[in-house]
What we know:
Blueprint: H1 5-8, E1 23-24, E2 31-37, H2 52-65, E3 72-78, H3 87-90, E4 94-101, H4 105-113, H5 123-134, E5 141-147, H6 158-167, E6 172-178, H7 183-196, E7 200-202, H8 206-223, E8 226-227, E9 229-230, E10 246-252, E11 257-263, E12 268-276, E13 285-293, E14 299-308, E15 314-321, E16 329-331, E17 348-355, E18 369-379, H9 390-393, H10 395-425
Helix pairs in contact: 2-4, 2-8, 5-6, 6-7
Amino acid sequence: xxxxxxxxxxxxxxxxxxxxxxxxxxxxxxxxxxxxxxxxxxxxxxxxxxxxxxxxxxxxxxxxxxxxxxxxxxxxxxxxxxxxxxxxxxxxxxxxxxxxxxxxxxxxxxxxxxxxxxxxxxxxxxxxxxxxxxxxxxxxxxxxxxxxxxxxxxxxxxxxxxxxxxxxxxxxxxxxxxxxxxxxxxxxxxxxxxxxxxxxxxxxxxxxxxxxxxxxxxxxxxxxxxxxxxxxxxxxxxxxxxxxxxxxxxxxxxxxxxxxxxxxxxxxxxxxxxxxxxxxxxxxxxxxxxxxxxxxxxxxxxxxxxxxxxxxxxxxxxxxxxxxxxxxxxxxxxxxxxxxxxxxxxxxxxxxxxxxxxxxxxxxxxxxxxxxxxxxxxxxxxxxxxxxxxxxxxxxxxxxxxxxxxxxxxxxxxxxxxxxxxxxxx
Length: 426
């Protein structure tokens, strides 16, 4: 998602009233702290006939093997060391198993393999510890929480802790993965994720857990390069925020649309993409639309993505070249392009993001689904009728093929006559 922005962004300066689209941060490595629940309930054997802890250990081992070289990775446990019945003592049981930094894969995997389900579930305290493990900095840090139950030690309440961390402005995202499926646990994990702009996943198999954690680690590698700027789209174009080139994050409710504006000058090309993440249980069929129109509502170009079944993200994109000298030349990379006027206000393009996700029964609708919007404005690509495209249009190619066919026919006919003449003489 955001990693694609590096290749797209142009040097167009932002106007005073335009949000700044993300902050480049190439001086820091991506940082991920995995928080693993090792409480007594992780002994339950209800995931494909395996215990919850063994599924988590195998998945984490696979994730460590696949870690990108630049990622700084750490592991924190909760409920892993205190076997007693003193709740006050057990609720202090969180520790850093492996420090956030360059990973010795054998050492990290060995540390995870030795864990045995033991104690209580102090999630709130573990989240505070993970924030300390990751430290402060200009880029987004990710906490990946794997647990099979709700916090059994509040206070501190983990949802309140997540809100507290978000309010500190330390660019911390908490993604939660639930190994049990009761509503109370699901609601708490959703609350933690929603408070920090993270995602929640209801885990049903070992492969799903492995794939999701790998995806989140990869996402950390994307967001550390460009931290998306928060923006709030509107219902209509006239009062929509004006965006400069960059990467933006927003929240969109189920079946809602959000509108943004991007100024595009004659001779420039707009490139935009959007990704919407279903961070809670959604209905089977879905769709995402990115539509560019002029300020009068005339469609310029659209991009769509649709599917049926589980998905981690739905993405689509568009390209559109502003007309130079009054000639419209819309183009699209991922879907249908529709010609239209650029508008009388100097090519101010309205970007409309719509989704066709629907929540499953009992799933909360607020806050909206997280979306990430990438905007770039570059020099327009060569027009199809330019000199460089003459051969591609077919006329010269057709002439060359015709001449070649004619010459081949004449040569073949001459050779045939010569062979017949020689045969008659002999």
